Amino acid sequence: MANKGKTIKVLLSRGDNSNSALKEYEVPAKESQTVLDVVTWIQRNLEPDLSYRFACRVGMCGSCAMTVNGKPRWTCRTHVSKVMDGDTITIEPLRNMPIIKDLACDLNEFFEKWTKAKGHFVPTKTRDDSVQIISPKEKSRREANAGIECINCGVCYASCDVVENDASYLGPAALNRAWTLVNDVRDGGRIERLKAVTGDGGCQSCHSQQGCTTYCPNTLNPTRSIAGLKKAAAIATLKGEM
C-alpha cells in the first residue's frame, strides 16, 4: 500500500555533458518502491522530456544503471527505503562516461575498450569439425565461468577510480572479458589478447582498489580477473611468447 500523503525529496540530474545540475522534485512515497519507479514517475508526471534508459525492469539487462546517492547501482533492483539519505535521494548518471542528456550516458568508449582488449572470440575450428568436449571441472573452464556473467551494464567502469584518472585505461569490464577468453581453450587469440591488455592503459594500470568488485550487481570479481591477466602475461613473457 502507498504511504498516503507521504513524499520523498528527489534530487535528479538534468542537462547534458556541458551543463548538468540537480533539480529537486517531490515524489509520492510507495511501498516496495524502486529508484527506477521514482525516475519513471517523474518522467510520466512532471518531466516528459526526461532522458534515461531501462528495458527489462527485473535486473537482467543492466541498462537502468545510474548513480544513486553517490554509488553506481541498477535502479530497478534498488529499493528507495534501503538507500535513502534522511528524506532525500540523489539520482545522477553513471560516472566516467559522457552525458548525452539527463541520466543517459554515452557508452561508445566503454564498448570501444572491449574491442581494444580484443574481447571477441577467435575460433580455432569450423562448423565441419566435431564439437570439442570441455569438462566443467577443468581449471581454465572454471576461471572462464567465473567471469562470463557480465552483462555490460557499466557499473564497474563507473566505480573505477583508475578510469576516472586515466582515460586510456581499458577498465574492469573489458579486462574481465579478456580474462574469460584467455581461459577458453577453444579460443585462438590468446597471445595477441595478452599483448593488447598489457599495452598502454592495460591491466598493469589497475590499483586493485576493488571498487569494481564491490559494486558489481552480478557479484563478479573483475579485480581477480585483472590479477590473472597480469600473471598470465608475465608467464607468457618468460616463455618468450610475447
Automatic annotation (TrEMBL):
Ranges where the 2Fe-2S ferredoxin-type domain occurs: 8-95
Primary enzyme class: oxidoreductase
Q: Name one Pfam family in it.
A: Fer2_3
Alphabetized Gene3D superfamilies for the sequence: 3.10.20.30, Alpha-helical ferredoxin (1.10.1060.10)
Q: EC no.?
A: 1.3.5.1
Query: Oxidoreductase: is it a keyword of this entry?
Result: yes
Please name the InterPro entries in this protein's record. Answer: 2Fe-2S_ferredoxin-like_sf, 2Fe-2S_ferredoxin-type, 2Fe2S_fd_BS, Beta-grasp_dom_sf, Helical_ferredxn, SDH/FRD_Iron-Sulfur, Succ_DH/fum_Rdtase_Fe-S, Succ_DH/fum_Rdtase_N
**What processes in GO biological process is this protein linked to?**
respiratory electron transport chain; tricarboxylic acid cycle
Domain of life the protein comes from: Bacteria
Report the GO molecular function annotations: 2 iron, 2 sulfur cluster binding; 4 iron, 4 sulfur cluster binding; electron transfer activity; metal ion binding; succinate dehydrogenase (quinone) activity
Would the keyword 4Fe-4S turn up in this protein's UniProt record?
Answer: yes
Pathway(s) served:
Carbohydrate metabolism; tricarboxylic acid cycle; fumarate from succinate (bacterial route): step 1/1
Keywords recorded for this protein, A-Z: 4Fe-4S, Iron, Iron-sulfur, Metal-binding, Oxidoreductase
List, separated by semicolons, the cofactors it needs.
[3Fe-4S] cluster; [4Fe-4S] cluster; [2Fe-2S] cluster
Q: Which family, according to the similarity comment?
A: Belongs to the succinate dehydrogenase/fumarate reductase iron-sulfur protein family.
Q: What is this protein called?
A: Succinate dehydrogenase iron-sulfur subunit
